[in-house]
Amino acid sequence: MKTSKQHKQFIQTFINCDFNISKACEVMSISRQTVYNWIDKVDGFSDLLIESEEQAIDTAESALMEKIKEGDIRAIIFFLRTKGKKRGYTEKSEIDLSHTIEPVQIVLPDNNR
After folding, report:
1. Per the structure, how many domains does the chain have?
2. Residues 7-47: pLDDT tens digits?
3. Which terminal CB of the chain, N or C, has fewer other CB atoms within 10 Å?
4. Would you say residue 33 lies in a domain?
């Protein structure tokens, strides 16, 4: 099934409802399950939903950068803690557990027991 006018209308409603699925469903008088079915079964709907959320993130990042340009110290600290981790702007240590370690077998003598 391809995206229809109703699917595109939902995306616009979702944007207008500040990316809140429950509110958008209420406005359009459909259930959340209907939206989840569209995500699973309608070609391109999931992509439209993801793209709309990416646009919201772009908007938030632009607003964050404006605050940084204004000298907002909280915005600067937030940016450095999230985007500046590789340069040491972090307060915690992170451990990479993405590789596997082979188990070690330890054999203890039974001491004739």
Report:
1. 1
2. 999 999 999 999 999 999 999 999 999 999 999 999 999 99
3. C
4. yes
